[in-house]
Write a structure and sequence with these properties.
- The protein is built from eleven helices and six strands.
- It is of the alpha/beta class.
- The chain has a six-stranded parallel beta sheet with strand order 3-2-1-4-5-6.
- Helix 3 packs across helix 4.
Length: 294
């Protein structure tokens, strides 16, 4: 039995997962909650976001005689970050400066916020016309997580989080949601800062050590590590398994369903736990790195 909310207030999971259930999920014995990123982990909206960013940035870059926006740019400077943070970080990587502007700037405004709003207008148009596809393996894993009795939260920097979750038909699978709207209301720093994930754990009533962070973005993995969460799963959607591992992922998989069995298609920094127990010790002086969400 669960208390259900999608606005970040406290919830309680009345079911305690068994050691066998956690073992079957590839998770350590102390885990009581799963914090899922949305775009690229559960929904196939990362491709949508990349296309919208590329259309937005390529027009700007062409006017400046700069090279096009690439998938490598997306992974390094935009993926996992809040929309305006992504604009700032990418433009800075090319030595391009723009005034900040206001979140209320129209999409045609040549400001940080205007550029971000231009991209968001494209995303909303595509969502309205094409809908949202999910990753079957992730939906299967989510179902197993729910069946095991773990509490669940969506933690996404996207201000479109509610619309995407609804369009994907996943709203009832989550006990709470911390998205870009909630983060803005609470003035929570975006990823790679751990604050949004910490807010998700708090909303579920669990300590970070009892929660697993599941992310496809380097910035999100960094946030999970920075927040001292009990386990961090990296999902390799952009062919950057090594970067996810270096960012602090305890395990990297090509598909979340790979955690349910020792199937093919996994690229592991450390294999999924076969016996319940804490993740491997990490040296106290090991550096953590950082980055945020679109």
């Amino acid at each position: 039995m669960r208390t259900h909310t999608l606005r970040g207030t406290s919830v309680i999971s009345m079911t305690s997962p068994t050691p066998d259930a956690l073992r079957a999920l590839g998770l350590p014995a102390q885990v009581r909650a799963c914090l899922f990123d949305l775009d690229g982990v559960l929904t196939q909206t990362a491709t949508l976001h990349f296309a919208a960013w590329k259309q937005t940035f390529d027009a700007l870059l062409a006017d400046l005689g700069e090279g096009e926006f690439t998938r490598a740019d997306y992974a390094a400077y935009v993926d996992g970050r809040r929309r305006y943070d992504g604009v700032r970080t990418f433009l800075a990587s090319r030595g391009i400066e723009r005034e900040e502007g206001s979140p209320h700037d129209p999409p045609e405004a040549d400001t940080i916020c205007g550029i971000g709003n231009r991209k968001n207008a494209d995303v909303q148009r595509i969502l309205a016309t094409d809908g949202v596809d999910t990753f079957p393996g992730s939906v299967r894993y989510l179902a197993a997580v729910r069946e095991a009795g773990l509490a669940t939260a969506i933690v996404t920097a996207s201000a479109n989080g509610a619309a995407v979750v609804e369009a994907a038909g996943l709203a009832e699978q989550f006990d709470t949601r911390i998205d870009g709207v909630v983060a803005a209301e609470r003035q929570l720093p975006g990823k790679p800062a751990p604050d949004t994930f910490l807010a998700g754990a708090e909303a579920l009533g669990v300590e970070p050590a009892a929660a697993v962070v599941i992310e496809d973005a380097v910035s999100g993995v960094q946030a999970g590590r920075a927040g001292n969460f009990g386990y961090v799963v990296g999902v390799n959607r952009l062919d950057h398994a090594e970067a996810l591992s270096e960012a602090g992922a305890d395990v990297v998989v090509d598909d979340l369903a790979d955690l349910l069995t020792e199937g093919a298609g996994t690229t592991l920094s450390r294999p999924p736990v076969a016996v319940p127990g804490p993740p491997a010790d990490r040296p106290d002086d090991e550096p953590t790195t950082g980055e945020e969400d679109p």
